[in-house]
Design a protein that fits this description.
Layout: H1 9-26, H2 48-70, H3 84-93, E1 104-106, H4 112-118, H5 122-129, E2 154-155, H6 163-178, E3 184-189, H7 196-204, E4 214-220, E5 223-224, E6 227-228, E7 248-253, H8 257-274, E8 278-283, H9 305-315, H10 321-342
Parallel strand pairs: 1-2, 1-3, 3-4, 4-8, 7-8
Antiparallel strand pairs: 5-6
Helix pairs in contact: 2-3, 2-4, 2-5, 2-9, 2-10, 3-4, 3-8, 5-10, 6-7
The structure holds thiamine diphosphate and magnesium ion (MG).
């Protein structure tokens, strides 16, 4: 016999009614998008030329990283060509700094454009790709695009997918206690969002009365290595998974920087002010396949945000096709020269292989 006494069909019906009633009390009927007060914001205004420059710089970086697997300058490549439009906008809108007053970033391996827009020296990404001791993120010990920048609250990225979703509520909890408008930003892929860590995140950020200021991003490229999106998820869109937790959610075309900027300024304003989580699913392309494990060749059947944005800028008279080309070529030339110098930098000393594995004394 249970503590509640014998379960009769009518008592179970009563409990179900109570549960449903309780849930409805706290729920907004439609959790799609931000509340109306945050819709249609125009500030901060988007600087299209700046966004383009950062996208071009990021694309050129990723193309060089892919090439390095072929020129013997690096081993394994994984990265974010195809995620530049959204990621550059995000990087430009991050509140950058160290400590809970600023934004924390828990990033997956396709996030280079976020860091480029935040002002990362692209040479450092080459150093990590080349496994050089001068790599400031991991001393030449981690895969490329696995960043860790203490001064900018960029939490060390792991190769196990989606673990970042379970970790992110921790920094947000510190921010809730600290006050201010710093938020936590976590991103990951669509396939990984099928893992339990994603649900853990939704649960921890939405506890009633202790909601956390987290931007939960699902970067949906419709692939998980070689598994197509429709084989992984029955629910569509994935971001709607947030709804039963009382978390607002939305989707955006991540190949469109103008739409991405607009969506981000609304969503970020909401999270910063209301101290509530938000789940945003971003449709993006995967322009060089999964990683060098699958060859890293350029795919041609997916939308290229650079091509589309450059055409748009030319049409709007913001930047001609020739100017765009010149910008890209300039970055490519500078990066090729940088690589020549990086080749001469030292490799990690074998005696340091265990450094930073465990907490050191002092
Ligand atoms: C916990 C864990 N399981 C499996 C893998 C192997 N793995 C690496 S990437 C990947 C696919 C991830 O797909 P998605 O989450 O959609 O991200 P995408 O690579 O498409 O950006 C898998 C299964 C891993 N790294 N970690
Ligand atoms: Mg994917």
């Amino acid at each position: 016999m249970s503590n509640r006494g014998p379960s009769t069909p009518s008592s179970i019906k009563g409990r179900l009614r109570a549960l449903e009633g309780g849930r409805r009390e706290n729920e907004t009927p439609d959790l799609r998008g931000v509340p109306s007060t945050y819709r249609g914001l125009a500030e901060p205004a988007m600087d299209k030329r700046l966004v383009h420059r950062m996208m071009a710089k990021s694309r050129v970086l990723e193309e060089r990283l892919v090439q390095m697997t072929r020129s013997g300058d690096g081993y394994f490549w994984i990265g974010g060509p195809g995620e530049e439009a959204f990621n550059v906008c995000l990087g430009l809108l991050v509140k950058k700094g160290q400590g809970p007053e600023f934004d924390y970033l828990h990033l997956h391996y396709r996030s280079s454009a976020i860091l480029v827009a935040m002002g990362m020296d692209v040479a450092d990404a080459l150093r990590q790709m080349a496994s050089k001791a001068t790599d400031p993120f991991s001393g030449g010990r981690n895969f490329v695009n696995h960043y860790a920048i203490k001064e900018w609250n960029v939490v060390p990225g792991a190769s196990t997918i989606e673990t970042q979703y379970a970790i992110a509520p921790g920094t947000a909890l510190a921010q809730l206690r600290h006050g201010g408008d710093g938020i936590t930003i976590v991103n990951g892929g669509d396939a990984g969002a099928a893992e339990g860590d994603f649900s853990t995140c939704l649960n921890w950020v939405s506890r009633p009365g202790r909601e956390l200021p987290v931007l939960i991003l699902v970067m949906n490229n419709d692939w998980g290595i070689s598994t197509a999106g429709h084989e992984t998820h029955g629910e569509q869109p994935i971001a709607r998974r947030a709804e039963p937790y009382g978390i607002r959610w939305d989707t955006v075309d991540g190949n469109d920087p103008v739409a991405s900027w607009k969506k981000l300024i609304e969503v970020l304003a909401y999270i910063r002010k209301e101290r509530k989580p938000f789940c945003l699913e971003v449709a993006v392309s995967r322009l060089h396949g999964h990683s060098s494990s699958s060859g890293g060749a350029r795919v041609t059947d997916e939308t290229d945000c650079m091509v589309e944005f450059e055409a748009r800028l030319a049409q709007e008279g913001v930047l001609s096709a020739a100017e765009s080309k010149k910008i890209r070529e300039g970055y490519a030339k500078a990066l090729a020269e940088t690589l020549l110098k990086i080749r001469e930098e030292p490799d990690p000393d074998p005696s340091m292989v265990h450094d930073h594995t465990f907490q050191e004394e002092g």
